[in-house]
Amino acid sequence: MSEVLQKAKLAKEASIKMNRVTTSEKNEALLRMADQLTTSQQSIMEANQQDLENGRQNGTSPSLLDRLALNEKRIVDIAEGLRQIASLEDPVGTLLQTIDRPNGLLMEQIRVPLGVIGMIYEARPNVTVDAAGLCLKTGNAVVLRGGSAALHTNKRIVEVLHEALDATELPPDALQLIEDADRRSVDEMLKLNGWLDVVIPRGGASLIQNVVQNATVPVIETGAGICHTYIDATANPEMAADIALNAKVQRPSVCNSMETLLVHQDYDQAAIQQLFQKFQNVQVELRGCERTLALAPFAKLATEQDYATEYNDYILNVKFVANLDEAIKHISRYGTKHSECIITAEQNHAKRFLQEVDAAAVYHNASTRFTDGFEFGFGAEIGISTQKLHARGPMGLVALTSTKYLVIGSGQIRG
Fold first, then answer.
1. Residue 413: what are its φ and ψ, rounded to 5°?
2. For the range 283-290, what are the long-range contacts, defined as Cβ-Cβ under 8 Å and sequence gap of 24 or more?
3. Can you give the pLDDT at residue 17?
4. Phi/psi at 278 (5° precision)
5. Which has the closest alpha carbon to 81: 123, 136, 121, 120?
6. Quick one: average pLDDT of 384-398?
7. Looking at CB atoms within 10 Å, which of 177, 215, 290, 312 has the fewest?
8. Could you report the per-residue pLDDT of 321-340, keeping only the tens digit for each?
9. Can you tell me the distance from the alpha carbon of 268 to that of 116, in angstroms, rounded to the nearest whole number?
10. How far is CA 228 from CA 259, 285, 298, 327, 368, in A?
11. pLDDT of residue 294
12. CA distances from 210 to 179, 193, 389, 392 (A)
């Protein structure tokens, strides 16, 4: 029996037990997991150093190494995320509606766990903890398959979390980590119908497309982020500069960072030149249209492929557009339905942008970096869903539940 199937079976058995645990028992487990992470910082960072060194030797980019890196502060923040999840209301068991039928049947719709969640992700060790916490809080079992670049870190983290779970009412088998780094382990997970109830991919476009195109298990598609910021003609220059810089450089390696800056052709020329210079000062490589190159000689000419690329790096596309319609058309063609922003003082333009742009989160005068579970008040998130079925946007606790009907009778039969 393969490792994938063996661990999926263990998770399936544990998911049945998870239906019996109470909210207080789940919260206690999450708090123990948080404490165990903070007391095990040193061993986690030692494992993380192995992965970082391997990454450097393999030529991993600085931005991806940043995604992989853990330090004391990041581990404390990750542990705090578990405590926040523990403080959130448990959606499981929530009564959504009651239906009294004329024949005396009482029907109640309640929230229930999804069951066993397969989580496939790349070099973000914080996802290991976030996914574990969110799934366990919602009564789900979870099978994690992280990227090979974070294997040592993920193994140590899961060992630490299991140490905490051993002292709780939750079955430790509800948390599984696939250690087989071969891509075939991912392919096997995608076809584990009957053992996995849903698969959630979180990572770059190639990972997500592989899952979406090849899975027979139901998939919740989370998004690659080709996110745009559109500076309209009436945008306040200081606000536009602050938002655009934040959207790109506050943390360029994440999915809600800006990849393309669209600029109205009538926007203040001096202001946009100053903004281009600010990007150069923080080592952002600009790739733009002909007008961009005229105003920023240090920029490179952008290609069609550039506009369709999620860099997750200090690279930014720039394109001047004639009007709002052209901006929306560009976003429709190249966007990934993740997060899009307009900076404008014209309320009618803002209203049109918010209504017409098809994305999980659409912003007026605010950075796309806010598309995040914590910023939305959900606590940690399992990912940003860019699809339209089941869940969309930052996926917190409620997104990891389904519903079922409890039908209570007194001997009714159907004629």
1. -130, 155
2. 283/314, 284/248, 284/249, 284/314, 284/315, 284/316, 285/314, 285/315, 285/316, 286/316, 286/317, 286/318, 287/315, 287/316, 287/317, 287/318, 288/317, 288/318, 288/319, 289/318, 289/319, 289/320
3. 97
4. -65, -40
5. 136
6. 88
7. 290
8. 999 999 999 999 999 999 99
9. 53
10. 6, 16, 21, 9, 8
11. 96
12. 20, 17, 19, 20
- Exposure string of 77-105, with b = 16+ CB inside 10 Å and e = fewer, is ebbebbbbbbebebbbeeeeeeeeeeeee
Residue 115 near residue 140 (C-beta atoms within 8 A): yes
Strands 384-385, 393-394: parallel, antiparallel or unpaired by DSSP?
Answer: antiparallel
What are the pLDDT digits (tens) for 247-298? 999 999 888 999 999 999 999 999 999 999 999 999 999 999 999 999 999 9
Residues forming a β-bridge with 142 = 117, 175
Q: 282: which residues sit within 8 A by CB, 6+ positions away? A: 245, 249, 314
Q: What is the pLDDT of residues 193-228, one digit of tens each?
A: 999 999 999 887 788 889 999 999 999 988 778 999
Contacts with 32 (C-beta within 8 Å, 6 or more apart), sequence order: 164, 165, 167, 168
* Packing angle of the helix pair 237-249, 269-281 (nearest 10 deg): 30
Determine the Cα–Cα distance for residues 337 and 387; give it in Å rounded to an integer: 8
Q: Which of 145, 136, 228 is nearest to 179 (CA)?
A: 145
Q: Which two tokens stand for residue 115?
A: 């069951």
